[in-house]
């Protein structure tokens, strides 16, 4: 099934991105990373995140872990949004702690390192594969029918029973 046809509820997105539900909720309410499949509309409704949303959540978490300010992360996420998230998995995001840079070629990474300042990078392709692996173990939801899709966890008998009951 194509990744565009699957959505992930908040707890699943948190588990795959390595964040708390409180962070997820705050980032959604403040517009940092909003669910692109289905936003929450009042209490009791479930947000539904796309695969790319979960990748961005994990990128945000990695930036926070390295000390990049939330303001600079917001700028980077806005840049990714405007760019359309295309070719995300081929990108390296670099930061000197104050600014986030997008590098799409080894030459760009090299040029940034020539400045002599300390930088760190996030190879988005690695994050992409990490999220892919994590989500394959967790439950997704078909966007069109709402059917729960069971991850590759053979021990989850309860989810299999729920699907049969529907």
TrEMBL record:
Please name the InterPro entries in this protein's record: DNA-bd_dom_put_sf (IPR009061), MerR-type_HTH_dom (IPR000551), MerR_fam (IPR047057)
Superkingdom, taxonomy of origin = Bacteria
Q: Where is the HTH merR-type domain?
A: 16-79
Which keywords appear in this protein's UniProt record, sorted alphabetically? Answer: DNA-binding
Query: Which protein is depicted?
Result: MerR family transcriptional regulator
């Amino acid at each position: 099934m194509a990744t565009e046809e699957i959505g992930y509820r908040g707890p699943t997105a948190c588990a795959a991105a390595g964040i708390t539900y409180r962070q997820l909720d705050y980032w959604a309410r403040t517009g940092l990373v909003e669910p692109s499949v289905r936003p929450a509309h009042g209490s009791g409704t479930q947000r539904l995140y796309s695969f790319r949303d979960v990748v961005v959540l994990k990128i945000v978490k990695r930036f926070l872990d390295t000390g990049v300010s939330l303001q600079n992360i917001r700028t980077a996420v806005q840049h990714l949004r405007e760019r359309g998230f295309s070719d995300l998995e081929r990108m390296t995001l670099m930061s000197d702690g104050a600014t986030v840079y997008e590098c799409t070629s080894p030459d760009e990474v090299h040029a940034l390192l020539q400045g002599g300042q300390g930088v760190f990078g996030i190879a988005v392709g690695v994050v992409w594969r990490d999220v892919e692996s994590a989500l394959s173990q967790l439950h997704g939801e078909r966007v069109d029918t709402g059917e729960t899709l069971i991850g590759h966890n053979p021990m989850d008998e309860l989810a299999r029973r729920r699907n049969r009951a529907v």
